[in-house]
Amino acid sequence: MANAVQDSMLTDLGKRLVGGSLSDESLMRATGDTPNLALVPWANVVKIGGQSIMDRGRMGLMPVVNEIVANLPRHKMILGTGAGTRARHIYSVAIDLGLPVGVLTVLGTAVAWQNAQMLQYLLASHGIAFLEPEGFASVPHYLMERGAVICQGMPPYKLWEQNPEIGRIPPQRTDTGCYLIAEVFGARKMIYVKDEDGLYSADPKKDPHAEFIPRISVQELLKRDLNDLVVERAVLEMMLNARHIREIQFVNGLKPGQLTAALDGEPVGTIIYNADAPKGAVS
User: Fold this and answer.
1) Hey, how many other C-beta atoms are within 10 angstroms of the C-beta on 2?
2) Cβ contact 174:65 at 8 Å
3) Is the pLDDT of residue 47 over 90?
4) CA-CA distances (angstroms) from residue 77 to 33, 66, 98, 184, 249?
5) β-strands 212-213, 247-252 pairing
6) What is the pLDDT of residues 217-273, one digit of tens each?
């Protein structure tokens, strides 16, 4: 009797999920037709580069911190931190010791965590807290109360990180972790703060003839298969199946006002978008 009552409360899709195989393609397609709830559509995820911004110390970081503070009255922000040069050093040591990719991910996460801690202390007078993944259920509360919250950018795969197709470097790092946060929460925007104006055809620090690319589809970018990218390739691949974040933006944190312009919706820096996203979809 209890089963009959339970079954009567299920939708047609619910009955299929309870009684069917979760690997059935037609069932998986049916789940994709359901609505996508944006949890905090008024919040912006802002990833602060580790090597590009954090590692520069006061000169690179404090202007970005001041710009974040100036925007607190107008924009809600989830602030993610990169790992930077210290992670690269620890990767080199761990690889030399023969440690697996999952262990490298654990070590890289520790560095991103340190950067998040430093950012928390710099914003302490404004009551901005640092939350680890276990506390993410409280993100909306902190956003409503203080206007921003801090997280370390590495996704919490740690020992469960998949092996890359090539080499030993963890393929899903802080760019990916921040993107996933924006996608899961259904954020308004995903903004990456770097030390360059955005995407180039090559590394502008090494190639003075590199072409600046202000706007490009993720499909075209993947087709170009550039050797140097402004973002982890895993982010581009995830954008193809995104439900919320179908557009990402890159700004130069060393140029005052660029972050503010991006938060205000201006097309500064570089924008990468999903050309196949339906019209009217959340960016």
Assistant:
1) 6
2) no
3) yes
4) 30, 14, 39, 15, 15
5) unpaired
6) 999 999 999 989 999 999 999 999 999 999 999 999 999 999 999 999 999 999 999
Give me the sign of the Cα torsion angle 209, 270, 241, 187: positive
DSSP element (H, E) containing 45 = strand 43-48
Per the CB < 8 A criterion, the answer to whether 171 and 40 are in contact is: no
Q: What is the pLDDT of residues 248-258, one digit of tens each?
A: 999 999 999 99
Mean pLDDT calculated for residue range 164-184: 96
Distance CA 226, CA 200 (A): 9
- Domains of the chain (ranges plus CATH)? 40-273 (3.40.1160.10)
Question: In whole angstroms, what is the distance from residue 222 CA to residue 239 CA?
Answer: 11
Q: Is 270 helix (H, G, I), strand (E, B) or coil?
A: strand
pLDDT of residue 142: 96
pLDDT of 277 reads: 81
Q: Apex CA 252: angle with CA 251 and CA 254, to 5°? A: 150
- The residue among 182, 160, 183 whose CA lies nearest residue 171 is 160
- The model carries a pTM of 0.93
Q: Which helix (H) or strand (E) holds 212?
A: strand 212-213
- 84 conformational bin, left if phi > 0, alpha if psi -120 to 50, beta if neither: left
Query: pLDDT of 184-205, one tens digit each?
Result: 999 999 999 999 999 999 999 8
